[in-house]
Amino acid sequence: MEIEQTKKKRGSPRYWKEINGNLYARFQYKTDTGKSKEKYKRITDKRLAKRAVDEMRREFEEHGEDTLTSDKLTFAELSAVYAEQKIIPAAYSNGVKVSGRRSLIPVRSALKTLTQYFGTKPIRTIKSADIERFKQTRLKTPTTYGGQRKIASVNRELELLRTILNYAVQNEWLLRNPFTLTKGIISKAAEVERDRILSAEEESRLLEGCSGRRKHLRPLLVCALDTAMRRGEIFRMRWADVRLDTNEIFIPQTNTKTEEARTVGITRRLRDELENLWDCSPRNLEGLVFGVTNTIKTAFKSLCEDAGVGGFRFHDCRHTATTRMIMAGSSHTEVMKITGHSQLKTFLRYLNIKAETTNKVASALDTYLSETSAVPLVSDRLN
């Protein structure tokens, strides 16, 4: 009897193996092709081997071999695969973007930062605390020019990190995204929203400065202030999109941020600028209206400095135009169609209330109260 028990003990499965003095749980399995394989997992005690093997077996049965063998996949390896598959130039079909990204530079910059921080770390070891530490580290890291890093910039990096880890979950290389345990770590409410709008007097100084070597900035500035078009939409605008007969500019979906085509109107002064540009152009309908494809950042910055207009960026023209359209009496829904906003919450970020507007609203409320209230106003009682 004792001999039989001894044989049974010797023939029982071994769930662990010692390699170079270290203990490992050993899981033996067969692939879809019938090939036998082994998976090892580091343990500290032989008594933990059975539990570790059971966990690996359950993972293999529920998610397959890719998930089982991805425990050593580092973030650098994952990001390389993600970049190859997702961070590629945009591809279009019938004018609709079907894959890739229209803007690659910002996302590549954010990916470089993430890879430098998480690079050698296996993705399964990335915890919510690691993500929080990354956020705090980035906020404390000055920009290239020594300035304070903005929470909005860090939020864009965190959003990319979340997307990449979701990509790993979708491919079953990761069982759960650690972002599920980091509620509120990406706080849009904490971002400082710009509310700079251009006054009529500041606009006059800027337009006066658009002469000589800065002459090309005038039609760009007028277009931005009168249409609320985004910078990229203006730069990519072609003569075929300009319809002077109907006083309209057509913005194809390939040029818009939301990938939805829209039409904006042409004011009298913008029409004058466009007609002058057309007369001086080769009159090629496929040619760019303003002849620029990248940036006017340096030229515009020096224009603002010489005109004494501080804290104003070219994109603030969109804020200014949106506010002016509302103040001119256009409804919110009409302006949203012009500016290309699909969400009211986002649209309201571009709407700035000026003193004239607040006084107008207060005056209207005064009239309403005086007509409907049974209790006389203080001013009425004094009289």
Word description of this protein:
The protein has 383 residues and is mainly alpha-helical. The protein has three domains: 22-72, no CATH class; 90-190, DNA polymerase, domain 1; 205-352, Intergrase catalytic core (hpI Integrase, Chain A, Orthogonal Bundle). It is 49% helix and 10% strand. It is built from 17 helices and eight strands. The chain has helices spanning 2-11, 49-63, 65-69, 75-86, 105-118, 128-140, 151-170, 200-208, 217-227, 231-235, 268-280, 297-307, 316-327, 332-339, 344-349, 355-372, 378-382; strands at 16-19, 22-30, 36-43, 91-93, 96-99, 242-243, 248-251, 262-265. The longest helix has 20 residues, at 151-170. Mean pLDDT is 84; it is low at 1-12.
Which descriptors would you attach to this protein?
383 residues, hpI Integrase, Chain A, three-stranded antiparallel beta sheet, 17 helices, DNA polymerase, domain 1, mainly alpha, disordered N terminus
CATH architecture of the largest domain: Orthogonal Bundle
CATH topology of the largest domain: hpI Integrase, Chain A
| Backbone CA Rg | 31 Å
Q: What ranges have pLDDT less than 50 throughout 5 or more consecutive residues?
A: 1-12
> What kind of assembly state do the chains in view correspond to?
single chain
Class per helix and strand makeup: mainly alpha
Order of helices and strands: HEEEHHHEEHHHHHHEEEHHHHHHH
Largest sheet: spatial strand order: 1-2-3
> CATH superfamily assignment of the largest domain?
Intergrase catalytic core
The CATH class of the largest domain: Mainly Alpha
Q: What is the CA–CA distance across the termini?
A: 116 Å
Major beta-sheet overview: 3 strands, antiparallel
Shape: elongated
Helix content: 40-55%
Q: Provide the residue-averaged pLDDT.
A: 84
- Percent of sequence in beta strands: 5-15%
